[in-house]
């Protein structure tokens, strides 16, 4: 079933103050698969959809404007869990190579100072971190929790010679131990966007030329990726303002591919429900396309997106103007041509960002 048709039906039921049809019941009733887009419809179902669409504007008059502007003051503290799971399969000629990275972390974020331009600096510390990196038949693992008490954590100190002499297992553990032990800072703009990251660079020291590790082993724990992972905490996933339940907006982010262009990931969001406790529930569909360079180079790979779809969900608290939870699932298939080499890459990923309760 078309995502926009389904969202219009949900907005109608919300506007008429009827019981909200849960997504699970909806999907079972309509026999709909969001990824494939197929849906078996009965004659009665089509009639109901047509009737609802003709009345799609009748409830807009009672829309309630919802404030989603971030609220940040020096001394505010947030604790979040952030998780990433990416499965990658590379197919070239008759060979297939698979890899997977599964990561999670608990982070404590505190607003420590305000700047003249309206930005707020937030210090971050890790309370827990896990990472599993699998490539072919090889697997590396790391797990760490902050010791009890207020004693500062000392980051391990390794020079380049010591790093080069490590095995992959030792290097992987030492790399993550260095990342977990050090604080980092985020510079947050007035609209909630992350303007810059200081720190989180220690892991890059372990990517030496003769190492068995590569940058993929760091996953989300490099400055731009981690900033992207934490970004929705204060931005409401790109919603500058929400006029009411049923409002729609678009969120876009880019992933650079060097000289091959950039991937554009676009999420079309809908505000579905405002609960009595002030929590706003939203969801959307995701599509991925590629923006090719204006002047392609023969020395750079050519990339084509064969399939790029997904879904997103978010719960936003209007009480304290921060995120409660956000989840994103994405399926991406790309074709790469590098000289005489042709490769297909299939990536299935999930990302989750959730506020932690006091006991977590």
What brief labels describe this structure?
360 residues, alpha+beta
Number of helices: 7
> What summary fits the major beta sheet?
12 strands, antiparallel
**What does the radius of gyration come to?**
23 Å
Number of β-strand runs: 12
Give me the secondary-structure category.
Answer: alpha+beta
Strand portion, in percent? 35-45%
Helix content: 10-25%
Shape summary: globular
Overall pLDDT level: 80
Element pattern in H and E: HHHEEEEHHEEHHEEEEEE
Return residue spans where pLDDT drops below 50 for at least 5 consecutive residues: 8-63
What is the first-to-last residue Cα distance?
Answer: 39 Å
Can you give a write-up of this model?
The structure is a single chain. With 360 residues, the protein is an alpha+beta fold. It has 7 helices and 12 strands. The protein has helices at 3-15, 23-30, 43-54, 160-164, 168-181, 223-230, 232-235; strands spanning 77-92, 95-114, 120-135, 138-145, 184-188, 194-198, 248-256, 262-274, 279-291, 302-317, 322-338, 341-355. Strands 1, 2, 3, 4, 5, 6, 7, 8, 9, 10, 11 and 12 form a 12-stranded antiparallel beta sheet that branches. Strand 2 (95-114) and strand 3 form a beta hairpin. The longest helix has 14 residues, at 168-181. It starts with a helix and ends in a 5-residue tail after the last strand. Residues 8-63 have low confidence and may be disordered.
Summarize the structure.
The chain is α+β, with helices and mostly antiparallel strands and 360 residues long.
